Fold these 2 entries.
Entry 1:
Amino acid sequence: MKRINLKRSLSLLLLLCFTAVANAQEGVKQAGGLMRSNGRSYVVIAVMLTILAGLILYLVRLDRKIGKMEKEN
Amino acid sequence: MTDAKNYMYKSWWKITGVVLLVFTFSWGLLVKVPDLPALEETSRNLFFHVAMWMCMMTLFTISVVNSIRYLRSFNLKYDIYARQFASTGILFGILGYSTGAIWMSYTWADPNNPAFQSFQALAREPKLIGAAIALLIYFAYMVLRDSINDMDKRARVSAVYNIFAYAMLFPTIWIIPRLLPSLHPGQQGNPALNFKDVTPALRLVELPAFIGWTLLGVWITTVRIRINLLKEKKLAQ
């Protein structure tokens, strides 16, 4: 299996952040944007998903690192 | 080293767990919950607080199975499995306990709630005491293990103790709290698994949440097991 490039995945994450900011600025013009609807609860969902993504990425990297150590032994 | 048949090195179930958790975190907050007094939107904690306990029970069950496997074979590998599953189980137990404390502060012990209960009354809550005892028994498992230096003796004593600890889960968290009057839901029958307690819409998130969290717990444990297996191998060299 091909290893996912860390640099590439990090830059993808950064790109996603930019799109989120872009969406937020768009929302200033039109108050009915998705992130601002429903008492802005989508913001909380975005935060929670980001935390989840961070934790999972950490776990994936740990898993990979140990996999590498196992191969070396 | 890498055993092709061993589930620890497979990734399909890890991906399944992550997908289920993403579903839990997104749809779990969007799904319409029944508007119950005092509870209101906090019903969504079903996917988080209750899932912690489900995960803990599953991990403790896997742990005791591995203890029995150790006693049948005296293969130290199973001792490592049992220990790591128990410690991740404790982690999820602590998370369940602390999330429960937060939830309780804004429902049972909320002064705005007509059925307000003081913290003094809450301290007598049988579910809380039972869960605390169960967790303390597992803390003692860790203390007992680490106090024995001889490897085989440690594995044997702690495997037997683990079976006792698991047996104590039954009265402390499943039987006694259900015999005593309590504020905690699930007095009659199984909390969370009872079909009358949960609407179908909630159940659609609940079951994936339970499975997703459990798979995450198992994943964390397998990483820890693999580190310990490596350590053992280094020691043997």
Note: Chain B has a mean pLDDT of 86.
Entry 2:
Amino acid sequence: MGMTLAEKILSEHAGKKVQAGEIVIVQTDLAYAQDGTGPLAVRKIQEMGFEKVFNPRKTIFFLDHAAPSPKFELSNDHTFLRGFSERTGCRISDVGYGISHQVVAEEEVKPGDVVIGADSHTCTGGALSAFATGVGSTDAAVAMALGKIWFRVPETIRVVMNGKLPAGVYGKDIILHLIGKIGAAGATYKALEFAGDAIEHLEMAGRMTIANMAVEAGAKVGIFSSDEITRDWLNRMERPEDFRELASDLDAIYEKTIEIDAKPLKPTIACPHQVDNTRTIDEIGEVSVNQVYLGTSCNGRLEDLRIAADILKGKKIHPKIRMIVTPGSRLVYLEALKDGTMEILIEAGALAMPPGCGACVGLHEGVLGDGEVCLATQPRNFQGRMGSPNSFIYLGSPAVAAATAIEGKIADPRKYL
Amino acid sequence: MKGRAWKFGDAISTDHIIPGRYFYLRSNLPELAKHIFEYEKPNFSEKVSRGDFIVAGHNFGQGSSREHAAIVVKMNGIQAVLAKSFARIFYRNCFNSGLPAVICDTDKFGEGDVLELFLDEGRIINYSRNETVSFIPIPPVMKQILSDGGLVEHVKKYGDIRLNL
Ligand code: SF4
């Protein structure tokens, strides 16, 4: 009997053939936590009585959510994580180096890996054909201490997208469309596997956006086959040796298949306060905006900044808009500086923040006040996430973000292409 | 132990349970726990009694992986969370923290109803309505983690993950 990608990877790491529904213990290749979940993970490691971690080289603490720290309590958490990393030889990715999911996609994750992160968007690694999933601090602590974790092997929903993607429609629109269709719990406990010619042509940045938001449909992982685009990404990241071909078997068993035709897709927006509250740009009506936020683990890659820069080139953002740009990592920041992308964005009136999660989680660098409206490229729009519980978050692609910044209201990017 | 039901709707996220803006209190759990459900049910922390239940609709605990959400629920004395369905990470976090999460038909419970949970038998008695609600018992692996007192205690006991698979 054939296997899905999830079954294949978990079988390899369990040392036996496993199938959906089984409970298995698997070896982990990489375990990480961030500054919001890491301190608790470290305390759990200590409570369990461990003084060392299983594989320090593959255990990483990211200081990315509060980077640099806006409050002394968070500075203390940072000190705590730096101290633990120093004592145990774990890697610390300090403030300004980047968002965990972006950095591991650049430097660590490879096809076939089992990746555990104490952050729900760890599923971003599925773009690189890894079984990458978010867990809480205790599960992460166990993975760090023992190099293993238990899982229920998930059933897989196959999402097949064929056809040519229209101009102005990106990975973000695809995943928002899917979540609008199946709902925020439409894939709970399941693996989402993406296939079809539209997916095969999608560049790595778009795949990462889709994988990142798999959790917004409740999924455990959102996973892609590896191909030439995966190889190109690994080459670009100077680790060609990490490439390996990986795909599900032709006779794999899926719980169901969802087919999507790419051709009629439109720029899509998630409206407050739920990710599955989606509308196409044609249905959105007049929504005036105070803040545009470009960045995050969902859309903070060079490609995303370029999409926005192509639209904003030679233009000025609307006077009542503040546009905040936060590159996903130092590498993205440097690339965007060197190729002129950042210059275009700043000339248009955007302001740049250091690499990290920035305004996404309401800590700093763009906190919303009462009644304020933000169009953000992040993956999540729950009430109060970016600040006041009386503020409103709309989610859209970097192209929508750029068009909105120009017009001061949620705008269709297709006319700027 | 009997306890009262506190009712919530569908799609309660970990941000509803404990807002992201209290991120800076995560290393000060007693202080963090006071802010539980701040917008949903103001002053919840003062009103709730030991042994009470959270009773919710679908996809309870969606969103961020913050285990602090499960921990503050437990710290406020909640005996168990009952919901029509749970988000995946939150579900694991509950059992890892020693807090039972039970999937059942929560339309059968009203705000303030007095309930008693019989976890092993898969039933809940609703004394306010003189009704018994059955549910599919929790998975054996979750039961084992729970009976060891959470995943940390489990690993402490065995020095390893020793689930009877
Ligand atoms: S950018 Fe936002 S969604 Fe991504 S890891 Fe950071 S806080 Fe989470």
Note: The radius of gyration of chain A is 20 Å.
